[in-house]
């Protein structure tokens, strides 16, 4: 089968179109004919080798942790899916090796859910990793409540965009950061206030409305943004980040938590239901063809840190 993979860590040039053996399904796994693969920042971070101390890698490494497609074969012990079922999945595995930028992927059935019926494979492939990250950050870590005040950083991005929608759907009051050109986009997602972080100091903007701070900050940027965010969380509030370790930040009166998204078919099924009910939407800013040049362009755009919504690669 054809796959876009790397044989060594490095820049975009390491991405190659390879002819690789069809993956074999193990117990509890399904073989999926991939229709579309989601593009996430973790893809270029893996390509660069930034996660090599966190996970074992086995070359060639096929890129991509988000897939949507059709079940081609089921392994022993698979109970939820059969051949021909349309699924989507966040398919992170303990060993980074077989990803979604490929004609076929073998993945654990526990990482997949039935694809929402009202959206395309392209749209479906853009959802799992980013939406699960937002879901686990807001509901498992921050445990947000209706009526609470939230600030979500990088709301125009993949995770932040789902975060705004999920928080608003849950009845929270959402403030968000984005640049001027993305203000309307983020307001349309459900934010009541969008701070242009390139012109305004977000902590001053928040303090002017909420002198005691907000109940929750969901940080998708890290670094200085995370550090400053700790100062605007109300005493007893929660600071959840998906980028940097917050434990050493100088606030002992708030909950500080780093979230690393885990595959979860139950939560993915819940997200699919929300999509079918029209409560959650994905916004595809770019759809790329399944070629090395296009994959390199997708990685460049992701690496710029300023793509809007989500990007996917479509298989022929
Ligand atoms: N721990 C985990 O499990 C996990 C899971 C998913 C992602 N992540 C990480 O979380 C980060 C975000 O992921 P993502 O998929 O949402 O990325 P993304 O889609 O590439 O995010 C791009 C967005 O970030 C915004 N942005 C950039 N700098 C900003 C700033 N200083 N303040 C506010 N917004 C800013 C940009 O908006 P403008 O163009 O308007 O500037 C752009 O729309 C990445 O570092 C990713 O690796 C971690």
Give structural notes:
With 316 residues, this protein is an alpha/beta fold. It has two domains: 159 residues, Alpha-Beta Complex (Quinone Oxidoreductase, Chain A, domain 1); 129 residues, NAD(P)-binding Rossmann-like Domain (Rossmann fold, 3-Layer(aba) Sandwich). It contains nine helices and 18 strands. It is globular and about 60 Å long. Strands 3, 6, 7, 9, 10, 17 and 18 form a seven-stranded mixed beta sheet that branches. It has a six-stranded parallel beta sheet with strand order 13-12-11-14-15-16, sandwiched between helices. The site of NADP nicotinamide-adenine-dinucleotide phosphate has 30 residues, from helix 1, helix 3, helix 4 and strand 12. NADP nicotinamide-adenine-dinucleotide phosphate binds next to helix 1, helix 3, helix 4 and strand 12.
Secondary structure: elements and pairs:
Layout: E1 2-6, E2 16-19, E3 29-39, H1 41-48, E4 56-57, E5 61-62, E6 66-74, E7 86-90, E8 95-96, E9 104-108, E10 112-114, H2 121-125, H3 128-141, E11 149-152, H4 158-169, E12 173-178, H5 183-189, E13 193-196, H6 202-209, E14 214-219, H7 223-230, E15 233-241, E16 255-258, H8 265-276, E17 284-289, H9 292-304, E18 310-314
Parallel strand pairs: 4-8, 11-12, 11-14, 12-13, 14-15, 15-16, 17-18
Antiparallel strand pairs: 1-2, 1-5, 3-6, 3-9, 3-18, 6-7, 7-10
Helix pairs in contact: 3-4
Bound molecules: NADP nicotinamide-adenine-dinucleotide phosphate (NAP).
The site of NADP nicotinamide-adenine-dinucleotide phosphate has 30 residues, from helix 1, helix 3, helix 4 and strand 12.
């Amino acid at each position: 089968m054809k796959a876009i993979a790397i044989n060594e860590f490095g820049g975009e040039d390491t991405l190659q179109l390879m002819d690789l053996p069809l993956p074999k399904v193990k117990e509890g796994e399904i073989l999926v004919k991939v229709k579309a693969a989601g593009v996430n920042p973790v893809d270029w971070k893996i390509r660069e080798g930034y996660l090599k101390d966190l996970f074992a890698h086995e070359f060639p490494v096929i890129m991509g942790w988000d897939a949507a497609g059709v079940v081609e074969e089921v392994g022993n012990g698979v109970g939820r899916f059969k051949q021909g079922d349309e699924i989507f999945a966040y398919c992170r595995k303990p060993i980074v090796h077989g990803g979604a930028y490929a004609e076929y992927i073998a993945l654990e059935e526990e990482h997949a859910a039935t694809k929402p019926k009202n959206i395309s494979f392209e749209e479906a492939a853009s959802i799992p990793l980013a939406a699960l990250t937002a879901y686990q950050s807001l509901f498992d870590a921050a445990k947000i409540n209706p009526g609470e005040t939230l600030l979500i950083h990088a709301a125009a991005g993949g995770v932040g965009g789902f975060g705004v929608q999920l928080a608003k759907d849950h009845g929270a009051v959402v403030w968000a950061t984005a640049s001027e050109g993305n203000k309307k986009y983020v307001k349309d997602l459900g934010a009541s206030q969008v701070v242009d972080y390139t012109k305004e100091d977000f902590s001053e903007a928040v303090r002017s409305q909420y002198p005691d701070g907000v109940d929750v900050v969901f940080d998708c940027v890290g670094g200085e943004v995370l550090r400053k965010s700790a100062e605007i969380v109300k005493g007893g509030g929660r600071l959840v980040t998906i980028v940097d370790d917050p434990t050493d930040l100088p606030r002992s009166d708030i909950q500080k938590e780093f979230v690393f998204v885990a595959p979860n078919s139950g939560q993915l099924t819940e997200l699919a239901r929300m999509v079918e009910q029209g409560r959650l939407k994905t916004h595809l800013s770019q759809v790329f063809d399944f070629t090395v040049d296009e994959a390199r362009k997708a990685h460049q755009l992701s690496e710029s840190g300023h793509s809007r919504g989500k990007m996917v690669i479509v298989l022929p």
